Amino acid sequence: MIDVVIIGAGVTGCAIARELSRYRLDVLVLERASDICEGTSKANSGIVHAGYDAKPGTLKAKLNVKGNLLMEELSKKLDFPFKRNGSMVLSFEDEGKEKLQLLYEQGIQNGVKDLKILPGDEARKIEPSISEEVVWALFAPTGGIVCPFNLTIALAENAFENGVEFKLGTNVKRIGKISGGYRIETDKGDFETRAVVNAAGVYAAVFHNMVSGDKLNIIPRKGEYCLFDKTVGNLTSHTLFQLPTKYGKGVLVTPTVHGNLLVGPTAVDIDDFEGVNTTAEGMADLLKRGALSVGTLPTRQIITSFAGLRAHEEGGDFVIGEAKDAPGFFDAAGIESPGLSCAPAIGEYLAEEIIKYIPSEKKTDFKETRKGIPCMALAAPEEKQRLIGENPLYANVVCRCELVTEGEIVDAIKRPLGATTLDGVKRRTRAGMGRCQAGFCSPKTVEILARELWKDIGEISKNDPGSEFLTGYLKE
After folding, report:
1. Domain 381-459 grouped into CATH 1.10.10.1100
2. Could you give phi then psi for residue 21, rounded to 5 degrees?
3. What span, in angstroms and rounded, lies between the C-alpha atoms of 387 and 410?
4. Dist CA 209 CA 211 (whole Å)
């Protein structure tokens, strides 16, 4: 019997897996997609929220502030990009100052440091890009930005190196109680475990309701985004929010850690748990609202759009901990914004709860750090020469837009939990994330994947099975 099975390899599941890997436990992560970071974690704002928005006393408030504090040190240990760029909440009318004051007071209660309410003119001195229509702004210097792919992958790789097993492409069908634990039925066989961690995103309520009479109801909340080219990535240096609505924080305008500009998300509750399509109406709405913050948006520099689903639980707060009527079944459900910011803290919080249920000693040989893939586009000249001297593939540029080399792509494939698909390579190296959106580099990347994985080129897919690039392909 396995000690702990985690369902879901998004940022929450991987953060929990890493924290549990500190202990002498058998831990297994089940993920239905072909790679980690394939659900909500791959399609979000990449914002590390300061912590003023969550109501005091909630799990969101407690874990947001702690997660924010943990993120910088974690980025150094696990080698992923993070920047504390600061954020502003903008009000376009004088009456908005009262609402900003409420956010300020919430932030102070939650433990957020250095918050300030600024008149529009003073805010424009700090961030010249904001619109002349801005009358008041709440400034939070502790806000930050992170790469959600790199964060999730770093957590997963470190957990893997510390003994956690991952079974990808494994779809959980049913969970049932058995003596001493649970039986998890999947399309790849059954698993028996002493404890379950339910980190299944928008599907978390489905699994919770299989074992508990205290039902959850999760509503998929779709958010659409536009990503702009790096040529306009410096339009703003801070993350710009607008005063929140009942549907969330509204449309934001932010730089990304990789130098792009991001606008979004919309917030629409839908019935489709796979509804990640973008719409003309959604794009028009977010661009109209985003322009309020900065006066005008360079729409000709949009290079792609995408949508993600947030797991909104009817209760409004995260649902984290052991189900009351299902001993050993631990939820990490309803993880919507600020879930990415909270992930490191959720990992610590839930690992402590699980260790109370399954007492275990800490390992003496836990590997605290992880080294990411070298980035030739950002490396110093002497570092580039060293890498090329060790491996000439680092001199062969495959993705011209992002200057990603064959050496980096091979590293992405060969490393722990390595890439097996085009999207897997893209998220680990940024090959295909530039202005041409993989129009140039895809054929070469597919060729490298086939070569390094010892597969036929017709077997290589964009992501999950069924997304192969070549149809009607006949092997020689």
Report:
1. yes
2. -70, -5
3. 13
4. 5
Q: Measured between alpha carbons, how far is residue 84 from residues 31, 36, 50 in Å?
A: 31, 26, 10
The closest alpha carbon to 330, from 316, 339, 340, 320, belongs to 320
Residues 6+ apart with CB under 8 A from 135: 91, 92, 93, 94, 96, 97, 119, 120
User: Using the 8-state DSSP alphabet, how is residue 306 labeled?
Assistant: E
* Pair 175, 207: CB distance under 8 Å: yes
pLDDT tens-digit series, residues 412-468? 999 999 999 999 999 999 999 999 999 999 999 999 999 999 999 999 999 999 999
473 phi, psi to nearest 5 deg: -80, 130
Q: What is the pLDDT of residues 257-276, one digit of tens each?
A: 999 999 999 999 999 999 99
H or E element, residue 75? helix 59-78
As annotated, the active-site residues are 49
Query: What phi, psi does 284 have (nearest 5°)?
Result: -65, -40
Question: Does the global pTM surpass 0.70?
Answer: yes
* pLDDT surpasses 60 at 476: no
In contact, 91 and 135? CB cutoff 8 Å = yes
Phi, psi of 230 (to 5 degrees): -65, -20
Residue 445 φ then ψ, to 5°: -65, -40
- Among 3.40.47.10, 3.40.50.880, 1.10.530.10, 3.50.50.60, what is the CATH number of 2-41+149-217+315-357? 3.50.50.60
- C-alpha closest to that of 175 among 218, 215, 208: 208
